[in-house]
Design brief:
elongated; mainly alpha
């Protein structure tokens, strides 16, 4: 009787160990931490950000249905930011 539950416990432990790739101890924990961190930043966080952005957009639209809602980020002017060669972000001369 005692040997059957010990055998079952051993089988469960070996199954869990094999399903985690056979890693044990600190390396197992470290690999799970790395995998969890990657999963968070690649799947969970982007979906949360998208959901939050959609909620903000819906809140803006419900406040005033005829108000303009920006749907994408504005593109910076390359002459203003100095991305075009020769313009090192010099001060603009006022138009006279």
């Amino acid at each position: 009787m005692t040997s059957t539950w010990k055998r079952r416990l051993g089988n469960v432990r070996s199954f869990v160990s094999n399903s985690t790739g056979g890693l044990r101890g600190g390396s197992n924990l470290a690999s799970w931490v790395v995998a969890g961190t990657l999963a968070y930043f690649l799947w969970v966080k982007p979906s949360q950000d998208l959901k939050r952005e959609q909620q903000e957009r819906a809140a803006l639209a419900s406040a005033d249905p005829h108000a303009y809602v920006e749907k994408r980020k504005p593109i910076a002017d390359p002459q203003e930011t100095g991305l075009i060669y020769g313009n090192k972000n010099k001060a603009r001369k006022p138009d006279a």
